[in-house]
Amino acid sequence: FVLIATLAFQLATGWLQQGILRYHSLLKIEKHYFSSIVVLLVRMSLLAGIMTIGFASFSSGFDNGLLILGVYSVLWAIFSVCTAINQSEIKSKTIVIADIFRTWTPVIVLVLIVLFGKESVRLEIVFITLIAGLIAGSVYHYYSFANTLKFNWQYNKAIGKKIRTYGFPISIWLMLSTLQ
């Protein structure tokens, strides 16, 4: 199921990541650039969650665990796009720290659950701790660029088209080369 979530968020937001990496330094001065990125991110991360739940429900039927998997996919998409923004700003320290939050938060939470919990660790608990890690990493990413980028929910179609035109072919190529 993690593979399904990964494919879904890559299909939904891989092109956005590639477009950000290519055009961020050129477009960040454009009016509504960051707002356009956020609007696309919200739309595409929700699409990733819906695709994850849809793909996974075909193989196993629908249950509450798929909702958790869908949330995981949405947050993984957000984390990945935030990482792309910081990569384009060449903020390697921020990327490393956000990744430490993403990876170590679940480990610490699981250890605490094992030490102090009264029940065994189920798969849903593991995914919830992974979600906590993605939230921690995404929040750290957000605060690293929140003061420098302006946001107002306005979408610039020209910016969206430019990012899509570059990002879609690269994203499809990367996905196909990964599946080989």
Report on the architecture of this protein.
The protein is an all-alpha fold. It has helices at 2-27, 33-60, 64-88, 92-116, 123-145, 157-179. It is globular, with a radius of gyration of 17 Å. The two termini are 19 Å apart.
Task: Round the mean pLDDT to the nearest integer and report it.
Answer: 81
Order of helices and strands: HHHHHH
Largest sheet: none
What is Rg? Answer: 17 Å
Number of helices: 6
Helix content: over 70%
Low-confidence stretches: none
Query: Which assembly state applies to the chains in this document?
Result: single chain
Strand element count = 0
Distance between the termini: 19 Å
Compact description:
The protein is mainly alpha-helical and 180 residues long.
SSE blueprint:
Elements lengths: L1 H26 L5 H28 L3 H25 L3 H25 L6 H23 L11 H23 L1
Helix pairs in contact: 1-2, 1-3, 1-6, 2-3, 3-5, 4-5
Pick out its properties.
180 residues; mainly alpha; globular
